[in-house]
Amino acid sequence: MEWLDYHITLPVTDPTWVFFLVLIIILFAPMVMGRLRIPHIVGMILAGVLVGKFGFNILERDSSFELFGKVGLYYIMFLAGLEMDMDDFKKNRTKGLVFGLFTFIIPMGLGIWSSMSLLGYSLITSILLASMYASHTLIAYPVISRYGLSRLRSVSITIGGTAVTVVLALLVLAVIGGMYKGEEGGTFWIFLVLKVIFLSFLIVFFMPRISRYFFRKYDDAVMQFVFVLAMVFLGGGLMELVGMEGILGAFLAGLVLNRFVPHVSPLMNRIEFVGNALFIPYFLIGVGMIIDVRCLFTQGEALKVAVVMTVVATLSKWVAAWITQKLYGMKKEERSLIFGLSNAQAAATLAAVLIGHGIIMENGERLLNDDVLNGTVVMILFTCIISSIVTERAARRIVTQEDATSDNKDKEKERILISVANPDTIEGLVEISLMMKNPRQKNSLVALNVVNDNNTSEAKEMIAKRNLERAAMIAAAVDTEVKTVLRYSLNIAQGIVHTVKENEITDVVIGLHRKTNLMDSFFGTMTESLLKGTHRQILIAKFLMPVNTLRRIVVAVPPKAEYEAGFIKWVTQLCRISKQLACRVHFFANQGTLGLLRGVVTKLEADTATEFSELEDWDDLLLLTGQVNFDHLFVVVSARKGSISYLPSFEKLPLQISRYFANNSLLIVYPDQFGEPQEIVSFSDPRGETEGRAYEVITNWIYKWFRKGDA
Question: I want to staple 489 with a disulfide (CB 3.0 to 4.6 A). Which of 446, 495, 635, 641 is the partner?
Answer without folding.
Answer: 495
